[in-house]
Specification:
about 230 residues; mainly alpha; 12 helices
Amino acid sequence: SHFVWSYGRTALLGKEAAKQDVDSSDNANQLSILLQKLKPLFPPPVIGTTVGLLLALLTPIRNLFMGGPLQTIFNSFAIFGRAASPLSLLVLTSSLALNIGIRPKSQPKEAAAVQEVTAEVTESDKANKTFFLKQWMCVSVSRFILSPLLIIGLLKGFQGIGLISSPQHDPLLWFLSILQGCMPSAQNLVLMLQVSNKPEQAGAIAKFLFFVYAASMLPLVLIISMALQRFGLA
């Protein structure tokens, strides 16, 4: 979403995200400085989605790409788009593998040095594990318990003021909203860190997401099953 690639990216990368495209030279005028500061709010995924939405809403242009002379171009972009999810999954699993120690074989001296470092268990390591467990519990509880309850409350509030229909009249809207609210975090966070040349942080996020995904199996099955039965979609 727009917030993930703009605010989320800035929160994840810190000041580096804001400084990547900002030109602080004296020759830059005020307009260019303003545009450069707004640029982090519109990264390529957001621009691509916005352009695609505008093209789909404009009927003459849409007809050129859908069944028209530019159908080949549309099919080409569609093929590239299908590769996004497999590539993201490959980056996620590679980062996870590197984080848990699956690395290429090193020289004997390097391997001995690595063993000496990994053999030392310090108090900071234990503190990090405790902090990791607390983070995992907080994210799991907020994502699989608090977030669905919040979505249900918002849906009931919108229904009360007449913005949306009841679940009996529009069950798909209610089901998709609750489903979106309980799904685990996307793997785009790992991609952002890898693109920013932060493989260690990307590996840590990949490891964290692995445990979140593992914890999501049971609550997702329960929430989806209950929602399908409640809304009559089963």
